[in-house]
Amino acid sequence: MSIKEKLNNLTGQPGVYQMLDKQGLVIYVGKAKNLKKRVTSYFSKQHEDNKTRVLVSNIVTFKVIVTASETQALLLEAELIKQHMPRYNILLKDSKSYPYISISNDKHPRVGFFRGKKQNKHQYFGPYPSAQVVRESLTLLKKIFKVRQCTNATYRSRSRACLEYQIGLCSAPCVGRISDENYQQDVSMMSLFLAGKGKQTLDKISQKMQIAAQEQEFELAARLRDQLIDLRKIQEQHASSSTADLDVIAVTQQDGVNAIEVLFIRAGKQVGQDFILPKNSNHQLVETVLSAFMPLYYLGKDTPKQLLISHKLADKEIIAQALNTQIIDTPNKDKKHYLNIANLTLKENLKQNLLAKYRKKTTLVHLQSILNLKNLPEVMECFDISHMMGEATKASCVVFEKGVPKVSKYRQFDIKNITPGDDYAAMNQVIFRRYSQMLKNNKPLPDVVFIDGGLGQLNQAIMVMDSIGIDEVQLVGVAKGEKRKAGLETLITVDDEKVNKINLPLHDPALMLINHIRDESHRFAIKNHRLKRAKKRTTSPLENIKGVGKLRRSALLNYFGGLQEIKNASIDEMQKVKGINLALATKIVESLQ
């Protein structure tokens, strides 16, 4: 796919993006709260910064890794920058060295920002991807550990505690507000935490808190408790304290296509990824695909000590023995977030791949031939009806252009004045409303309209189109397959009152595209039906009566005690409520009957 096509269908979730040049080298790595907005910004405007313009001119494509949070994206960005050393990341930082957090070797050690030549006696943690990340980290450390960050000159000149102490951001070792022993313990805890030993840090703080409580040093115990709570929150944001070497393997299937994502984790940090579309695997069970994939991928390679997989396998032990590794299918909390990242990234990569396939002109030409169309089906629409036992009936219309969804053109319709559960009447209504309006506004009609359902729903659409004078649009019913199994759908067309039924092979690209359009109409219809149903169940019928505002609703409920009592009230009783006259009382009674 072109960059423009990839951008149109990019996810809005947080993650990391990598820009690649024509040699396939990573030339820039960045993080984003919203991948779609951030990556699109590179290509949707003229950049004033010359370096950014040069970067954009060298981008041939990009790839993304989806993460569960912005914090995870930040950490992954740092790892990928260290791994690839992209030239534009360095140039955009004015060729400076990466920043670190340092802990000095003073009597009362200082924690601070560092960039430059390291000194042997000091401790350094990093490197970090930017100065901003270091400063954000220092702010957190100040709140939790209260280790001083002032310069040595300021530290030596203090005769009384400064404002940092007053607002709880420093323990003031300069004027003896904390013992040397306790201060050194805080520094040690912070050092452990920065070294990635979060679990050991939490365990030590917990032990100290218990000892302080036993010795009735309640102020110290309370401070340690607060440290423990804050550190646990940070650890949850960072999602894992694991330092293991493992590969994470996730498999999924969409529209019959199986795909696999492999994340490479070394020393608890993600260092790479691989996206694979196994050949001859379409419509196979994902467990079957995963079981066949692992030996083919790892035999003859240096396999890590652990493999984390997304699905349980019956032959797990046999594969583990052959690969001389441990296979994990029920991850603990430390490893589970890696599986989440793998699944999120896998779904995004597969979506992009499928959209590229649907976008191919050969697929549209093939569909044109199957449906015997005069023109290439560049604009296609699909309708679906959704309700629950006749309640809150909604109709959806999704629009695809050149095989790609155009979400901005999706439409939803409230279906009214029909017998609850009458799908034929609902289809009749939505087709009439959609295309009579398009004719009225002189808007171009689609090439093909898919109707989710069998011959009955299709006939309703044909009747409506004939009644409003539209005969150039090809109408196609998409009927469920045997046992409603995906891939066995039957396409139905009517030509001169002759019903044609078309059954395509499982792996046919045209059928996969039609199923994708139909599934998207399902998703959109169900989503809006649920919203309508939820709103109906949380909305009082009184709100729909003109003239009955918030104050009058409140007066009615206070007087009668509940909605059921209001429904049972007579017009005379209704008029006894303040603000309700004869006309309004009559309207309320009639509306609630």
What is the beta-strand fraction?
15-25%
| Computed Rg | 32 Å
Ends distance: 58 Å
Provide the residue-averaged pLDDT.
82
The outline comes out as globular
* Structural class by SSE content: alpha+beta
Tally of strands: 19
Write up this protein.
It is a single chain. The chain is of the alpha+beta class. Strands 12, 13, 14, 15, 16, 17, 18 and 19 form an 8-stranded mixed sheet that branches. α9 packs antiparallel against α10, α10 (198-214) packs antiparallel against α11 (218-238) and α15 packs across α18. The two termini are 58 Å apart. Residues 90-96 and 236-241 have low confidence and may be disordered.
What is the strand and helix layout of this fold?
Blueprint: H1 3-8, E1 15-20, E2 26-32, H2 35-43, H3 50-57, E3 61-66, H4 70-84, H5 87-91, E4 100-103, E5 111-114, E6 123-125, H6 131-145, H7 152-156, H8 163-166, H9 180-194, H10 198-214, H11 218-238, E7 246-254, E8 257-266, E9 269-276, H12 286-298, E10 306-309, H13 316-323, E11 326-328, H14 333-359, H15 361-371, E12 379-388, E13 391-401, E14 404-405, E15 411-414, H16 423-440, E16 448-452, H17 455-467, E17 474-479, E18 490-495, E19 498-503, H18 509-537, H19 550-560, H20 563-568, H21 571-574, H22 582-592
Parallel strand pairs: 7-10, 10-11, 12-16, 16-17
Antiparallel strand pairs: 1-2, 1-3, 4-5, 4-6, 7-8, 8-9, 12-13, 13-14, 13-15, 17-18, 18-19
Helix pairs in contact: 9-10, 10-11, 12-13, 15-18, 16-17
Keywords:
593 residues, globular, 22 helices, 19 strands, alpha+beta, five-stranded mixed sheet, single chain, eight-stranded mixed sheet
